[in-house]
Structures are given as C-alpha cells and as structure tokens.
C-alpha cells in the first residue's frame, strides 16, 4: 500500500527527517517495499521565481514577455507561452544550464527576436505532476531563488507491505497510529461535523424505502442520504493526494469515497439514488446466472454464494469488491446514497479471488476492517462531500444489524511477560507501551488491557507481549548464552541414509544433481506407461511442464547427462537422492529414492583408454552402495525387466518390490528410445533404489560376532553344463546348498563362486558351461586329502542325483 | 687344489656380468653348482685326498660354495628386480591427466544444507523428516492458518485431486492432499509422534504454485527448526539464531529481529542480517529467515499444554542462503545441473 508522507503529516507529527521512517516502520512490522522519491531526476538550476512584470510579446500574440525575480540582482527576462499566471505569482524557473527531465537543455536564446533567459515551467515539464495546462503556480510563497527541489520535494511516497494480520494499517490513519505510538506524538483524528440519527427502518428522510440484510456475511450495514450534490472535479488537495498514492481522480464524490478509504481503511460505496430501481437495497447472495458489469467495464458471471448489494431488480455491487456501472455516480447525479458497511473477510476474499478482481475495497474487507469505524468513515466522507460537492445530509440514516465485534479486555500477568521474553521487564514499560498503542490499561500487574476494535488480532496475553516487543525493540538482545540440556534423540535414519548414499556415490565419481520434482505429463506418460500415472497428476498445475509429481529420479538424471553432453561438458556420471511418488495398491506412496546414471564412457577423448562402464560394473556399484549404507539386498533373484517403459528389455534387471519388500533395485540400460528422446547420445546406464521410508525408521541392532576358521581352505573346482536359460545364480545356489549339506556339522563351506562362463563350440546347442569353485574349511584343523576327496565325491553325487546339471569332463 | 677352488669362484664371479635373465642365470649356475658343475665336480675330489688334508679342503670347499651361492643370490635378486621393473613398463610422466579424469561434488544446495545441519547439531538439534506430499490439516490447520487464509488458495498451493488416495501420508480427517508449501508441517508430525523436550530441524523440499524465473522456483528447499521445552524464551531464540548466522556468515555478521506475522508463531519476526563480506549485498540489511515463539494454539493442536510447554520455531531457505553466500543471481542454476555451475562450489562452504 502506498502512503504519502505529506498526507500522513495531517494525522501525526513526523520526525524532522521523514526519511528515517524507511528504517523505523519495518522495525514496527510495516515493511517498506521501496521508497518513491518525488524528484527522481535532478532539477539542478530550477529555482523559485516571482513574476514582476508581464507584457505581451511584440511579435507574437500567444507569447508574453516577463520580468522574473529569480533571487539575483537583476530580474531575468523570460518569454513565456502560458496564460494561467499573474504578476506576483511564484513559479518554477529553469535557468540557463538547467536540464529538464527528458533531457531538454535550457539556454539563453531569442524567441521571435526577444531575448529569453530561462523558462518558466509547468508541473509536467518538471515531472512533478501531470498538469501541463499552464505554469505550476507555487503556493505558500516559497523563498525566491531557492532550488525547486527544496520547496516541492516534501512529499515522499512509501510503498508498505502490510502483513495479513494488520488490516488496520491499510490506511493513513492506521499507519499514523503506529507512528504516534513509536514517537509518542499525539494522533490527530479529523473531527466530524455533519450528523444524522440512526433509524432501523428507512423513513421519509431516506432516498431508499427499504434495506434487507439477508445474509450473515453482512452483519452490519448503514446507508446515508445526501440530496442536491453537484458533481464536478474534486479540489486540488484531494486530487494531489490521490495521485500521489496512484489513484486517478474521477469526480468529487467518488474521489471522497476513495480518499476516506485511504484515510481510514473503511471502504465506502456511493450510489446515484435515481439509478436504484424500486428504491430498495437488498444484501443477498447472487442468484443463479446473475451477472454484473463492474466499474472496470468487464461483465462478470456471479456464483450463487457471492454476496451482492442489489436493488429490486439486479445486483448493483459485488459486496465489498466493486460496484457496477449501472448505479455509478456520474456528472448528472444529484441524489446520493452512501453505503458504509462491514462484510465478513472470508466472504469478500473468496469472492474477489474467484472473480479475479482485487480492489482497494476487497483488500481491506478481506483483512477485517474495524466495525467501529463504519460510522466514522461515513460521517467523514459526508463532511468532505458537503464541502466539495455541496448538498444536504438527510437527518436520519438507516443502520441495519450491529457491529460484529467490539473492544475486548485481556488479563495479563507480569510473570507471563518475563517468562516469554526471558529478560526482566518493568511493569511501567509494559503498561506504557500498551497505552501508546491506544489500548486502555487498568491494574498494576496483573493488568486488564482493553484493546479497541481496530486491532482484531490482539486477543490473548501472548499478543500483548508481541505488541510490547514491537515498541520496545529487540536490538539489545545480543550474544545471549545458549544453554541446552542434552537430548537422546538422533537424526532420522532416512536423512543420514540419503547423505551416506550421496557420499558413497561421490566417491564413485557421480556428481550430485538436483532436479524439479514436478514433471510434464508427456514425460511421465512415456516413461511410466506401466503405472497409472493419472494418480500422480496435480489438480491445479500452473504450467504444462509441471503437471505430475515424479515417479523416479531417472528422467531428470538423463536430462542432466544430455544437457552436459550437448554443452561439451565432461560430466558423464550423475546421481541424486530425493522423494519419488508411485501409485500403489493402497493409494499413492511417497518413497525415498537414490539414483545414479552414466554414459559408458567419458564425453572427452582421453590420452589413455579407460574401461567402459557396463551392467556388471554398475551392479558392483549398487552392491557397494548398499553395503556402505547398511542395507541388505532384497531376497530373491535379479530378474530381467520386461514391461517397464523406463528400462530396455533384456538389458536391465530388478531385485525386490518396494510395495512388498520396502526395497526395490532397478539396474541396467534406460530404454534407448527414451534417452534418445532426451537427446542423450549413447546408451545410459543407470540404477535406482526405491525405498519405503518404513525401512529406514528403525536403527539396526549391532551385529553379533561369528568366529571363523583360522585354518587354510581346501579348494575344489568343477564345471557344469546347464541350459542356457538357467540363471547362473540358480546354479550357484543349488551347488552351494548341496555342498553345505555335505559339510554339515563337519566343516564350513565358503560361498560358492562362479569363475568361468562358456558357451559355444564343443557344447550342445542351448547349453552353457559354468565353472564353480568350492572352498571347504574345518574350524579346528587343515582338511586332509582323503576327507576332501570324499566330500567332493559326495557333492558330485548330490549334483547328479538332485539336479539336471551335467558334469563337464 | 685350493687354487682350483679359487679359479671356480673367479669363474663364477666372471660369469655374473653375462647374466641378464633367468635362463642365463640357470645356465651359469648349473655350470658351477649343477650336478655336473665345476664346483660339484671339485667337491667329489675330497674322497681322494689324504685324511689329513680333508678338513682343510672341506673348509675351503664350503667357503667357495658360500661365495658362489652368494654371488648367484645377488644376481638372482638383480635380475628379478629388473624383470619387475620391466613389468612396470615405462616410468611415468606425472603431468599426464588422471584416467578417468572425473571429479564429483556435492550439489551446492546439499553443501549448504549439510553446513546448516552441522551447526544446529552442535546445539543438540537433530534431523526429523516427513513426506513432501501433505494434507491441508498438517500444512495449514495445525499451524493455526485459518480456512480462508490466502496461502491456502489454489492460486498459491499445488493440490492433488480430492479423490487421490495416499497410502503413506496420513490425513487428519477428510482434507485434501497437497504438496507442502513449507517444512513447518514437519513440526506438526514430529510433535504428534514424539514427546517434548524436543530440539529438531527439518530440512526438506517445498512447493509453491509459482512461475519459474530468476527468483522463483516451483520447488525449493527450506530448513525448519523447532525447540519445545519448559520455559523456552525469546532470548533463547535470539541466541540460537545469532549463533547460527555467525557460524554461517562469519562473526562480523549483525542481526536483528523485525516484527512480522506467521499464523503459527507469536510473536513472529523476520530475521535480517548485515555482513561485510557478501559482495553486492555487503553492509545492507537483508532478510534471511522467519522465526517466532510457537503460538499456544499450535501447541494445543498437537495436544501439548501451553501452560507447561513453550517453544520457538524458525525457517530458512536453503536456496536463499546459498545464493547470498556465493553471490548466485539466478535460482534456476540449481536445477539446470550444468557441470560448469556445479563444479564451482566443491569444498567452498
């Protein structure tokens, strides 16, 4: 909200250097957005001059030749085209050497043969206003010869940002009240003159016959009658103030309602009484299919829970938001009715929002105006209307309903304040602060503090502490000692896990990245055709590229790889941790994910060949990631992924199911068509962990120590011919189980390892050979040859009898 | 006879120079120490010697054998060392680049987050987490935000459809699911799950319905702090934040609390800081975070008695701190993941 300091001065004495308000107001909670200086461009060499003499130009009818006292010994001779001034007027004079806003340079010159030593200026020429109709006549006789900046730059406009709780500060009086409290200066509230008596039903004095309040969203409504106004422009001082804060003057009545809104914070609405049909006013909800053309000349469809002010036939005002052109005050208006009312903040806010129509009025009603100010604002406006537009106030006004809230009294104890602040506070300082804010205080600790209705948000003792602190300030609370008892709590495991995972991947050369969680429908639908992605759609996305929450970190990582590849950056390994979202059997789930992706080789040519990344190297990285973060591999076999749009069939694998086992690992090559669509050149190797946060909710118990044999192992190798399609791991596990069965209670068997794979020449079609190594260890001795051979024979016998594997000789 | 032995040793010595690999060595050694070698042959002569000469010859023979064996041991280790060196290949040019020549670093937002978390951990704050998908109650109602508060508008907050079901984001009643607009919702979930005294921080991702530009991002990161205990005061809050900002921005930082408004704290403040080392932002008051004492209404909503418990809370933007610290002027850099951006900040927080 814009605040004019010149205007503000009317209600409270400002500090000598008004500029200090820019620093003081924020510390009261009124943020100053920017300060609009009145003279942004230098007006050097523009001074106050007095017209001493004015004669017609001998050669030109439209020009005059003037002698102007500009504070020098000799008056300046100036040729002028304006006509709105007289001898004795003081005006701004641009002397030779001055540069006007816009760049026009003033020089000594001759106009139609008459020398001119400067230029008398209009407000517009100096960018001090919009008036270009004639010279800017300076009032209050400023001293001749003073720089113009010193005389007219007095007004400064501040753009304040008012927090949601301080609706009372959306007015000059409200801000003045804060300044008066801060500087302990008297608040000067304009006094009222015209008065009328409240009547509950319209009587013969009123221009409307009837007012009906049909809805609780308007608990209090007053309507005042003024007859015989004469519409015309409002006086300069009103126009100047409105312009200063960015409002366009319209006519004396409309300007007064705007002026009073900006002065008191109470929005008002003036109707042309002749335009009210049926001479009744009804405050009601809009009807089905009703529409209104608001003053901004936009026809708006109303919804049936929007509050309107209507006459017998149609809505005239969207209550608290904006009037219609139908009952607008215009040049021919003579009979006025003036509305001053209180509407529920939520109702106005919701209506304004849905109509996309935020006005000065709706902004204030939305923030809860002061019900006690309804009458004051109406009478203040009436005084100004009678002064500027003439007319006569009817002796009675209709007052329907009652103010919904008034002042309230809060009891507060001294100890409560000190307990909250943590430092000692004198009782005197407390009650003094509250009194300065306009609260009345009784008692001497505990106190009863009565808060006027204009401060709707001050309701509890803690609110009074805040008010005290606002005035007291907190700048002296520095370097306080922090003393905290130790707490047993540890970081949530999920946090430490993600951090450890990134540390590990960094060590593997994966750069950490950060991508948007919101993705486009196009991406989500092409990468996750196997999921019901509709479940992940936002109800109110803002843009087409941010419509869904991400089911995986992988598309982002492929973006990063492609982006860097395209820019010839040597970044070919990227990782990310974050939350991902998946539809599930019992609704959507939010999982923790760790993902990494890489091209097989660096983007740069190197002086030395490096081994290309492949599936099995990636598998190693996944295994070591799990080990270093303390997770165990899900049970079961790695299975080739099929029917998953993200992964290339046959070149990628999955272990676990996060819906069932709380942990799922996907690994392999991103579907080539998808990485290609993101303009990544070359296959993208990637892996992702999907983790149900439940998995990371409990810390594991310390592992128990298992003793191991100190004797050397005995080693036996064997080769098996199996079906090509038989997973190697199945074979390995079968052999391991058989070996463990043989060793049972006699000796231990180390994990069986695959050390060779052979397919092709010498083997039947559809077969492959796997070579396995077995290592036996006894806990108490070195195994003897005989014992070993016997055990190996038993293993072979077991393989022969229990499996279809053939021993390769 | 002993002269013969001397000759054999000399022969052995002479042969060393010609040994340049294992087979040379084997051959040379066999010539002397092999079954038909000169020394072996010579040793057989002992049987033919008179008894009284045997001890002296035996001694001389042993002496010669030791000398010869030492010679071959030395030459063996010499050629093995040579072979090892050959296996190593050419000596290195240490100025050639590393292979692979790859460097990875933390994302600058992570680096900042870790630093902030580390500072608060020293004060006994530990990390608490909750989901990014939230519900209206946890994000707004429980934080004392009235139903018609502007922040709850569909214009500012991203909602899921009212029919959407969530398996691991619990609801209070029938309220809608949304993407959390601040990490303050984590306060609520933590206070409902754990009993005070509590000192927690909640770093995490938040969402606003904002058009992406240099200063706005559809998602961003905050770090929320909460302390609930008996007798927590404004002075405690100021002390903790002063400490944090000094650790983060240097001991020359000045701070101030500027009155403000948040529905979930009372009194509420914006924290401004002024520091001499912030580039363009040096020596100016800049807004850095929001804070306040936990509103008694919020404590009531999580079933804590405000007569017994009090607390403070604060929230700080990770992007904002990072941008101020490093003089980054466009928030979009964080999400573009260009290596030329990411590589600038490793080790610098």
Please characterize this protein's 3D structure.
The complex is a heterodimer of chains A (809) and B (349). Chain A has 809 residues and is α+β, with helices and mostly antiparallel strands. Chain A has 20 helices and 40 strands. Chain A has a seven-stranded mixed sheet. In chain A, strands 11, 13, 14, 21, 22 and 23 form a six-stranded mixed sheet that branches. In chain A, strand 18 and strand 19 form a beta hairpin. The mean pLDDT of chain A is 91. Chain B has two domains: 87 residues; 235 residues, Bira Bifunctional Protein, Domain 2 (BirA Bifunctional Protein, domain 2), CATH 3.30.930.10. In chain B, helix 1 runs antiparallel to helix 2 and helix 5 crosses helix 10. The longest helix of chain B has 35 residues. The N and C termini of chain B lie far apart (83 Å).
Number of strands of chain B: 9
Please, how many helices of chain A?
20
Mean pLDDT figure of chain A: 91
Unreliable parts of chain A: none
- Could you say what the CATH architecture of the largest domain in chain B is? 2-Layer Sandwich
Shape of chain B: rod-shaped
Class computed from helices, strands and strand pairing of chain B: alpha+beta
**Biggest sheet of chain A, open or closed, and with what strands and sense?**
7 strands, mixed
- Radius of gyration of chain B, CA atoms, in whole angstroms: 40 Å
Helical fraction of chain B? 25-40%
Largest interface by Cβ-Cβ < 8 Å:
A-B, 103 and 91 residues
**Mass-distribution shape of chain A:** elongated
Keywords:
heterodimer, A: 809 residues, alpha+beta, Phenylalanyl-tRNA Synthetase, Chain B, domain 1, OB fold (Dihydrolipoamide Acetyltransferase, E2P), Phenylalanyl-tRNA Synthetase, Chain B, domain 3, 6 domains, seven-stranded mixed β-sheet, six-stranded mixed β-sheet, 40 strands, 26% helix, B: 349 residues, BirA Bifunctional Protein, domain 2, two-stranded antiparallel ribbon, rod-shaped
């Amino acid at each position: 909200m814009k605040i004019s300091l010149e205007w503000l001065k009317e209600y409270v004495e400002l500090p000598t250097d008004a500029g200090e308000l820019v620093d003081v107001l924020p510390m009261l909670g009124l943020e100053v957005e920017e300060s609009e200086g009145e003279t942004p461009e230098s007006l050097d060499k523009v001074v106050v001059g007095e017209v001493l003499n004015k004669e017609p130009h001998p050669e030109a009818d439209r020009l005059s030749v003037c002698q102007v006292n500009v504070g020098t010994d000799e008056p300046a001779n100036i040729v002028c085209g304006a006509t709105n001034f007289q001898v004795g007027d003081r005006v701004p004079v641009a002397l030779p050497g001055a540069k006007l806003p816009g760049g026009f340079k003033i020089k000594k010159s001759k106009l139609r043969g008459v020398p001119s030593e400067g230029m008398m200026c209009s407000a517009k020429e100096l960018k001090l206003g919009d008036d270009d109709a004639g010279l800017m006549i300076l009032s209050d006789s400023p001293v001749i010869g003073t720089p113009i900046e010193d005389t007219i730059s007095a007004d400064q406009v501040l753009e304040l940002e008012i927090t949601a709780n301080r609706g009372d500060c959306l007015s000059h009086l409200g801000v003045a009240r804060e300044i008066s409290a801060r500087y302990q200066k008297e608040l000067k509230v304009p006094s009222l003159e015209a008065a009328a008596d409240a009547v509950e039903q319209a009587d013969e004095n009123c221009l409307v016959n009837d007012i009906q309040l049909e809805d609780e969203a308007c608990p209090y409504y007053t309507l005042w009658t003024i007859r015989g106004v004469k519409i015309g422009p409002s006086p300069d001082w009103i126009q100047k103030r409105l312009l200063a804060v960015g409002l366009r003057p319209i006519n004396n009545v409309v300007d007064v309602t705007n002026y009073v809104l900006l002065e008191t914070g109470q929005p008002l609405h003036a109707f042309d009484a002749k335009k009210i049909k049926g001479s009744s006013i009804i405050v009601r909800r809009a009807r089905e299919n009703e529409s209104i053309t608001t003053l901004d000349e936009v026809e708006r469809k109303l919804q049936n829970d929007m509050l309107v002010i209507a006459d017998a036939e149609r809505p005239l005002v969207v209550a608290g938001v904006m009037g219609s052109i139908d009952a607008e005050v215009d040049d021919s208006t003579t009979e006025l009715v003036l509305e001053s009312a209180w509407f529920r903040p939520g109702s106005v806010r919701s209506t304004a929002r849905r109509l996309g129509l935020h006005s000065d009025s709706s902004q204030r009603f939305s923030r809860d105006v002061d019900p006690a100010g309804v009458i004051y604002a109406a009478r203040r406006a009436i005084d100004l209307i009678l002064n500027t537009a003439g007319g006569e106030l009817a002796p009675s006004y209709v007052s329907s309903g009652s103010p919904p809230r008034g002042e309230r009294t809060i009891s507060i104890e001294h100890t409560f304040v000190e307990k909250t602040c943590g430092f000692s506070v004198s009782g005197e300082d407390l009650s003094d602060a509250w009194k300065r804010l306009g609260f009345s205080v009784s008692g001497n600790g505990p106190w009863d503090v009565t808060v006027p209705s204009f401060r709707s948000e001050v309701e509890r003792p803690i609110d009074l502490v805040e008010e005290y602190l606002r005035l007291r300030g907190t700048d002296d609370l520095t370097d306080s000692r922090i003393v905290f008892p130790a707490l047993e709590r540890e970081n949530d495991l999920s946090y430490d896990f993600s951090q450890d995972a990134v540390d590990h991947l960094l060590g593997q050369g994966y750069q950490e990245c950060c991508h948007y969680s919101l993705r486009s429908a196009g991406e989500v639908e092409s990468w996750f055709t196997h999921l019901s992605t509709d479940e992940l759609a936002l109800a109110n996305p803002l843009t087409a590229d941010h419509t869904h929450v991400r089911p995986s970190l992988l598309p982002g990582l492929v973006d990063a790889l492609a982006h860097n590849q395209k820019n010839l950056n040597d970044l070919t390994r990227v990782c990310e941790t974050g939350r991902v979202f998946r539809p599930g059997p019992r609704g959507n789930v939010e999982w923790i994910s760790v993902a990494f992706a890489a091209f097989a080789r660096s983007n740069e040519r190197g002086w030395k060949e490096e081994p290309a990344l492949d599936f099995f190297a990636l598998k190693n990285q996944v295994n070591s990631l799990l080990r270093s973060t303390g997770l165990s591999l899900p049970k079961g076999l790695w299975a080739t992924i099929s029917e998953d749009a993200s992964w290339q069939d046959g070149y990628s694998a999955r272990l676990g199911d996060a819906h069932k086992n709380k942990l799922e690992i996907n690994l392999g090559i991103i579907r080539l068509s998808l990485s290609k669509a993101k303009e990544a050149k070359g296959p993208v190797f990637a892996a992702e962990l999907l983790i149900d946060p439940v998995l990371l909710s409990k810390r594991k118990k310390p592992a128990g120590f298992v003793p191991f044999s100190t004797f050397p192992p005995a080693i036996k190798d064997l080769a098996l011919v199996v079906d090509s399609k038989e997973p190697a791991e199945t074979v390995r596990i079968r052999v391991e189980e058989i070996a463990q069965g043989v060793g049972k209670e006699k000796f231990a068997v180390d994990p069986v390892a695959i050390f060779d794979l052979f397919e092709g020449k010498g083997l039947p079609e559809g077969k492959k050979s796997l070579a396995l190594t077995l290592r036996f260890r006894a806990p108490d001795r070195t195994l003897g040859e005989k014992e070993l051979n016997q055990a190996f024979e038993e293993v072979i016998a077991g393989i022969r009898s229990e499996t279809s594997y053939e021993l390769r000789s | 006879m002993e002269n013969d032995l001397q000759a054999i040793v000399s022969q052995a010595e002479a042969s060393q120079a010609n040994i340049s690999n294992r087979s040379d060595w084997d051959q040379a050694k066999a010539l002397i120490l092999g079954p038909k070698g000169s020394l072996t042959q010579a040793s057989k002569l002992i049987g033919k010697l008179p008894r009284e000469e045997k001890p002296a010859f035996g001694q001389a023979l042993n002496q010669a054998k030791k000398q010869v064996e030492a010679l071959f041991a030395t030459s063996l280790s010499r050629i093995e060392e040579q072979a090892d060196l050959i296996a190593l290949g050419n000596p290195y040019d240490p100025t050639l680049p590393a292979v692979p020549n790859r460097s990875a670093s933390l994302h600058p937002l992570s680096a900042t987050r870790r630093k902030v978390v580390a500072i608060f951990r020293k004060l006994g704050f530990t990390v608490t987490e909750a989901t990014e998908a939230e519900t209206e109650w946890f994000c707004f109602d429980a934080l004392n935000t009235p139903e018609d508060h502007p922040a709850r508008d569909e214009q500012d907050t991203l909602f899921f459809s009212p029919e959407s079901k969530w398996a691991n984001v619990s609801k209070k009643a029938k309220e809608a699911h949304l993407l959390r607009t601040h990490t303050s919702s984590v306060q609520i979930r933590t206070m409902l799950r754990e009993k005070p005294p509590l000192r927690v921080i909640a770093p995490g991702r938040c969402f606003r319905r904002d058009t992406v530009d240099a200063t706005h991002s559809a998602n961003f990161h905050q770090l929320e702090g909460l302390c609930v205990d008996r007798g927590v005061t404004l002075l405690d809050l100021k002390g903790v934040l002063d400490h944090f900002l000094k650790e983060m921005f240097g001991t020359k930082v000045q701070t101030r609390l500027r009155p403000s408004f948040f529905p979930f704290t009372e009194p509420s403040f914006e924290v401004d800081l002024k520091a001499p080392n912030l580039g363009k932002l040096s020596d100016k008051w800049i807004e850095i975070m929001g804070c306040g004492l936990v509103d008694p209404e919020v404590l009531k909503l999580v079933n804590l008695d405000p007569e017994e418990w009090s607390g403070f809370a604060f929230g700080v933007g990770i992007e904002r701190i990072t941008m101020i610290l490093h003089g980054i002027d466009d928030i979009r850099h964080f999400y573009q993941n260009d290596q030329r951006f990411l590589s600038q900040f490793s080790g610098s927080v």
